[in-house]
Amino acid sequence: MKFLVPAFTLLLSSFVLSAQNSPASQRPNIILFLVDDMGWMDTSQPFGDSVMPLNRKYHTPNMERMAREGLLFHQAYANPVCTPTRTSLISGMSSASTHITNWTSITPNQATDYKDDQLEAPQWNVSGISNVRESNTYLCPKPLPQLLRDAGYFTIHVGKAHWGSLGTQGSDPMNLGFVVNIAGSSLGHPQSYYGEQNFGNMPGKTTFNAVPDLQAFYGKDTFLTQALTQKAIAAMQYPISHQQPFFLYLGHYAVHLPIQPDKRFLDKYLAAGLDSTEASYATLIEGMDESLGNILDFLKAKGIEKNTVVIFMSDNGGLANSGRGGIRNTQNAPLRAGKGSPYEGGIRVPLMVKWPGVVKPGTKTNNYVGAEDFFPTVLDIAGIKPITAIDGISYLGILKNPGIKINDRPLLWHYPNRWTVNEDEGYAWSSGMRYGKWKIIYLMKQQKLELYDLEQDLSEQHDLSASNPQKLAELAKRWTLVLKQRGAELPVWKNTGKTVAWPDELINK
Amino acid sequence: MKFLVPAFTLLLSSFVLSAQNSPASQRPNIILFLVDDMGWMDTSQPFGDSVMPLNRKYHTPNMERMAREGLLFHQAYANPVCTPTRTSLISGMSSASTHITNWTSITPNQATDYKDDQLEAPQWNVSGISNVRESNTYLCPKPLPQLLRDAGYFTIHVGKAHWGSLGTQGSDPMNLGFVVNIAGSSLGHPQSYYGEQNFGNMPGKTTFNAVPDLQAFYGKDTFLTQALTQKAIAAMQYPISHQQPFFLYLGHYAVHLPIQPDKRFLDKYLAAGLDSTEASYATLIEGMDESLGNILDFLKAKGIEKNTVVIFMSDNGGLANSGRGGIRNTQNAPLRAGKGSPYEGGIRVPLMVKWPGVVKPGTKTNNYVGAEDFFPTVLDIAGIKPITAIDGISYLGILKNPGIKINDRPLLWHYPNRWTVNEDEGYAWSSGMRYGKWKIIYLMKQQKLELYDLEQDLSEQHDLSASNPQKLAELAKRWTLVLKQRGAELPVWKNTGKTVAWPDELINK
After folding, report:
1. Closest by Cβ to A179, choosing from B180, B208, B212
2. Dihedral, CA atoms, B133, B135, B137, B143, nearest 10 degrees?
3. Domain A7-15+28-400 identical in fold to domain A411-507
4. Chain B contact present for A217, CB below 8 A
5. Where would you tag: which of A259, B64, B238, B418 has the fewest CB atoms within 10 A of its CB?
6. Crossing angle for the helix pair B374-382 and B82-91, nearest 10 degrees?
7. pLDDT given for residue B509 in this prediction
């Protein structure tokens, strides 16, 4: 079972050289700049091999700047929806292992699965992740922020958390190891982006989606993205002035629904001919990009740019199913589908890492990485002893040597749930695995496997399952083994009470 | 004008010996345990000379413990209502100087004065205190938490803030110098004390009084006081593990309205014959006392008890005007009146200080101190260079030598506002000054001065203004001078547009 303990682990990781924790004083600051629902194409900085039409739609000069100053991943992945990614980021586990396979509700113990006539979701951890044993949560006693904090990091959370439902320990980022929490709770999207609307905090109208902690901006024309940026900058001051290494998790609520325009940028997108929804969406993108610029500028002004690692990523693919302007499923073109789907549009995300002196500026890599790799990578960067028995693998080796070639690694997106009303394009009861250039997809309701060669077919238009049954069988077997090893769960047929078949069982049929 | 620069300042303060900041590592931790609306008699620990009937009503074993382990002030004062006290605590200024003379509304730029036919309140700072120049706020560029933070303290705010209205910088404790803020905003009282009611955060019912940041307790049977205590204890872990001195401002929402029973303690008070309101109130007191015990136990368990100063106080006198059980204005007996009044029931509060090795256990002092003295005292304790031109005076000298006798110091409660519907017992348009054993009160609407000898007449039943006109005149003159020096404002007669007379002008009449 060589593929379960990949040989490249030793090449990738610097754990071998740093089995002991290094002193806190030598550790770099680490910033995760996490965007919500941002697609791979939602930027003027191409993440593909060339400039494509959608790249011309957006203006993200600070992402371009970051690409010039750091390493860009052509093939970085997150999960199809947000909580599974966010819980993978801080646990190092894939969603197949955490059993947090769908987004968590604000209400505890409440599954968010869309009702289905034929299939029933398995008993997944509907309340999210927790640092203590709680019902319907995945137990992670030492989430990443806690490990960093234990090692001397000042840990700051700003923005969207969405790790657990209200009433659970995981709903409060401070219970997951953050020293400071600003605006993070159980909510998955903001009630309002507008300071004028108190970000939703309006008696009589306040829902659980009202953004907490930003009271100084109430009634002001400060957009949520700006407010979070200002709070993040203010929060960094303490560790900087005390020469303590810090970890900043800046989880922007942007660019998730509701698509409310950031009026500072709106006119130019309307002038460019975008419909009002898409123009508004583009302003969410540009406001987020401005925030990135503010953060980079701040690091420079404080003289800590060289000792700060900035990691930019999104938590899932761009929304393409509904709620956006234009024709459905075109918003991530040339990638297929979008958020909620295991096709590339739903899972491939922008990822860039800037680390002066370590990461060579203006470099790119074709190696694929996943959300669960963030955990061991950050520990590796911080010089903290490795945590064993996790699904993720440190990509510090890629940061140092982007040209390295890694193909013998299974990366999984397990989503045995129904997300929403639409069932096309993998939006319901799906799973996927990447292995080398291959992508295998399982559409459970259809009891169908698909096979794609991503090197030849980025848009997943040519299913090779029929033409290459040998590869399909090999991958299905491999995949099933990993799924079972991780304790992955499958949906149940309502008429028989039996779970759907494992991928390799479809081959044997 | 000797009394404006009291000779005892040098005796009281250790500033002379510590003109330079001392190193952060040598500084003691400082905890302010601040109770809301707790009266001087709301405890089984007598703050008077003997056990009085109301002391038998309450059970506060941890306050008794603290009295055994520290210094008790028989005559400590706050302001008649809460925001003036809270802004004095962090600015060192009396309300006559800050022009924050009444409680601040959650809504910015909105005076909270009760409507009156004859008098109009002056233009006071209705939006509270701010670290930057903002309309309708008192500018305090370096509030106490900021000074402590600048000197190396890790500053934590937990609980009720109420320093500024929504949309102002002062509404967010982090802008006032706190590194961490939990549950503090513009609200002056909680929508609900119950975790089962999410402390008020219930879509459709949520008001601005819903308590923020406690989402992990939603739906649980955790009382607000417990939740805040647990969060405070969790927040202290970071500075303790990093050997950084910390300042914890634990501002309990208890025992302010709504008087919701903490059911764990209710039965015994009902069994003792208290009516349901008073029994419920007593449970708020006992829950608060339990919190004090939890904090003291935690310090001991962490081995930092000896290097931690704990200051216990309340922000104004106990409520006696309405909303309580029993006969009006008896709830602070033998003190007269209650919250909102310059009579002793409205301003005299419990104050105890525990500092092993510095403050002698089980000691008491008759020296009187005010809310504005907290600021210079804490700086003095922390070994931080004095701030000049403030109204408050350090009482570190009293902590070290409780037997010292200080009588030549004017202490003011300036309240040129109408608090509520009732106008009796000083609840509207009032001002007061303590000087030595004397207390002078100005009832502005009645254009009347009263004089009391507190040594002989703790209950302020014998107005000596007629029998001792010489002392009255002397104090009125002294008082007017201090009021004018501080820029104090007076209400305006609606019919003439003129301000009411200064105290000394009444004497000349």
Report:
1. B180
2. -20
3. no
4. yes
5. B64
6. 30
7. 65
Q: Which CATH number fits domain B7-15+28-400: 3.40.720.10, 3.40.50.300, 3.40.50.10490, 1.25.40.10?
A: 3.40.720.10
Contact flag B218-A171 (C-beta cutoff 8 Å): yes
The tens digit of pLDDT for each residue in A439-497 reads 999 999 999 999 999 999 999 999 999 999 999 999 999 999 999 999 999 999 999 99
CA atoms within 13 A on the CB side of B94: 25
Q: What is the pLDDT of residue B16?
A: 37
CA A404 – CA A71 distance, rounded (Å): 13
For residue A166, what is the nearest residue in chain B, using CA coordinates?
Answer: B215
How many Cβ pairs within 8 Å bridge chains A and B?
Answer: 89
Lowest mean pLDDT among A359-363, A387-391, B401-405: A387-391
Q: Which residue of A has its CA nearest to B201?
A: A208
Q: Roughly what angle, to the nearest 10 degrees, separates helices B276-301 and B61-69?
A: 40
Closest among B259, B254, B255 to B277, alpha carbons compared: B259
CA angle A307, A311, A312 (to 5 degrees): 140
The answer to whether the beta carbons of residues A44 and A268 sit under 8 Å apart is no
Q: Which residues contact B401 (CB under 8 A, 6 or more apart)?
A: none
- pLDDT tens-place string over residues A125-178: 999 999 999 999 999 999 999 999 999 999 999 999 999 999 999 999 999 999
Predicted pLDDT of residue A509? 65
Question: What residues does A181 pair with on adjacent strands?
Answer: A157
What CA–CA distance (Å, rounded) separates A429 from A442? Answer: 8
A227 touches chain B (CB under 8 A): no
Q: Is the per-residue pLDDT at B65 higher than 50?
A: yes
Q: Is A422 exposed, middle or buried (0-12, 13-18, 19+ CB in 10 A)?
A: middle
CB atoms near residue A420 (< 10 Å): 15
Cβ A172–B242 below 8 Å, yes or no?
Answer: no
pLDDT (tens digit, 9 = 90+) per residue, B309-326? 999 999 999 999 999 999
Measured in angstroms, the CA of B206 and the nearest CA of chain A are apart by 6
Distances, alpha carbon A229 to alpha carbons A160, A187, A454, in Å:
12, 19, 37
Q: What is the pLDDT of residue A386?
A: 80
Rounded CA-CA distance A276/B505 in Å is: 68
Of B171, B172, B180, nearest to A180 by CB-CB distance is: B180
Compute the half-sphere exposure of residue B195: CA atoms within 13 Å on the CB side of its CA: 20
> Going by C-beta distance under 8 Å and a sequence separation of 6 or more, which residues neighbour residue A8?
A397, A404, A406, A408, A409
Top CATH class, A411-507: alpha beta
Residue of A146, A175, A205, A218 best to disrupt the B interface, most CBs of B under 10 A = A218
Instruction: Kindly give the pairing relationship between strand A119-120 and strand A492-493.
Output: antiparallel
How confident is the model over A317-341, as a mean pLDDT? Answer: 97
For A:175-194, CB contacts with B below 8 A are 175, 179-182, 185-186
Q: Where are the domains of chain B?
A: 7-15+28-400, 411-507
**Which of A457, A453, A455, A460 minimizes the C-alpha distance to A426?**
A460
- Residues A392-416 have a mean pLDDT of 96
Instruction: Give the span between the Cα atoms of B247 and A270, in whole angstroms.
Output: 51
The reported pTM is 0.94
Mean pLDDT for A233-262 is 97
Per DSSP, helices labelled H in B192-333 are 224-241, 263-271, 276-301
Inter-chain CB proximity B167 and A218 less than 8 Å: yes
